[in-house]
Amino acid sequence: MFEADAASAALGIRVEHALDGAASARMTVTDTMVNGHGIAHGGYIFLFADTAFACACNTYGPVTVAAGAEITFVTSARLGDELTAVAEERTRYGRNGIYDVTVYRETPEGREVVAEFRGRSRTIAEVQPRES
Fold it and tell me: Could you tell me the domains of the chain?
């Protein structure tokens, strides 16, 4: 799934781990991700967390998509920040799941949380790729 994800690839997102309902990814905040306030646009942080969520909930095989998600921005990310997103499954029931993703950066003082994301997944029938 991730190998065909052009949106995540365009942002330079790198998946480091994806197995058994968990995933981790990294992304560097680039100049095209910074808004008019000089901080990372929240939409990019959401997309980054959503990518880690997607990788975690698709580790079991069947096609799984987001049924909903929410994010809480804890602090701002800035140009050049190297962010990590860690996704962890909280529960699966039937075709549904709940996953939490923490987005953070390492600082000299330690880990600083940038955002907390909660995603709700739904396993669906196999999706056929669109023809060009």
Answer: 2-123 (3.10.129.10)
